[in-house]
């Protein structure tokens, strides 16, 4: 084949009139807001049937409804990722929604529960490890029958990580370990399920993205644990705010000189899931605006 013919063939493959993810069924955890919600909406725009998973039933329903109102296909399945029964229900309902198929899992659900090492409690430690490591593993394990198949259709798993997992971060020993851990899970999935079934698994590690986890802690955002304890979210003194001059100074180590948006973060997840990344497997993609390069 001549080089020009090869270029024409590639160009043809890049034409997806029904969307980059047309016909694929995607579970996106933690998609009631933030990066997860933007990922759900973007996937739907690209033709995916989206399963919106979130602990907050109203937020999950609102995202699914907004997708359907825009002409997309979505359903919401609310529940706690720390509940084994919910994970099984999520997989079951996703497969029913997808007529017996699941193509994509985005393990995005999570939050931070910070503390310096000598003051971090067992509960803080165990909750964050369970949420960011054990729950994604259990979801992938439960969905194995829908990924270990040979039907010629694409299958992709994305585990969301953080620069805290790549470089560590003061006050986040639990979160840093958990986010480092998902890279090992990703590589193992790629090595186990890639050879026979063509499953791709990659990690997307975010830097400073504007979400409730990086907004001003004084704004009052919080998570309630299953036993009713409130965990405050955000960064003290409003370091997540984009507008103030003081806040802008913290971005001097980012070559783009600004934090990323949830929409930009979602775009990176879409890119990795898409056929444009069909030969990218077992990798950690840093989405940081150039920080830590």
Describe this protein's structure.
The protein has helices spanning 3-13, 34-45, 57-69, 84-97, 122-142, 144-147, 163-167, 173-197, 245-249, 262-273, and strands spanning 25-29, 49-54, 73-78, 104-107, 155-162, 199-206, 222-224, 230-232, 284-287. With 293 residues, it is of the alpha/beta class. The protein has a single domain (22-208, 261-287), classed as NAD(P)-binding Rossmann-like Domain (Rossmann fold). It has a 7-stranded parallel beta sheet, with helices on both faces. It has a two-stranded antiparallel ribbon with strand order 7-8. 42% of the residues lie in helices and 16% in strands.
Name a few traits of the molecule.
9 strands; globular; two-stranded antiparallel sheet; seven-stranded parallel beta sheet; single chain; 42% helix; Rossmann fold; alpha/beta; 293 residues; 10 helices
Report the CATH topology name. Answer: Rossmann fold
Based on the coordinates given, report the CATH architecture. 3-Layer(aba) Sandwich
Unreliable parts: 7-12
CATH superfamily: NAD(P)-binding Rossmann-like Domain
Give the % helix.
40-55%
Number of domains: 1
**Mean pLDDT score:** 88
Shape: globular
H and E string: HEHEHEHEHHEHHEEEHHE
**How many alpha or pi helices?**
10
Helix and strand composition category: alpha/beta
Instruction: Say how many strands there are.
Output: 9
Main sheet record: 7 strands, parallel
Q: State the distance separating the first and last CA atoms.
A: 38 Å
State the oligomer: single chain
Q: How would you write the strand order of the largest sheet?
A: 3-2-1-4-5-6-9
Gyration radius over CA: 19 Å
CATH class assignment: Alpha Beta
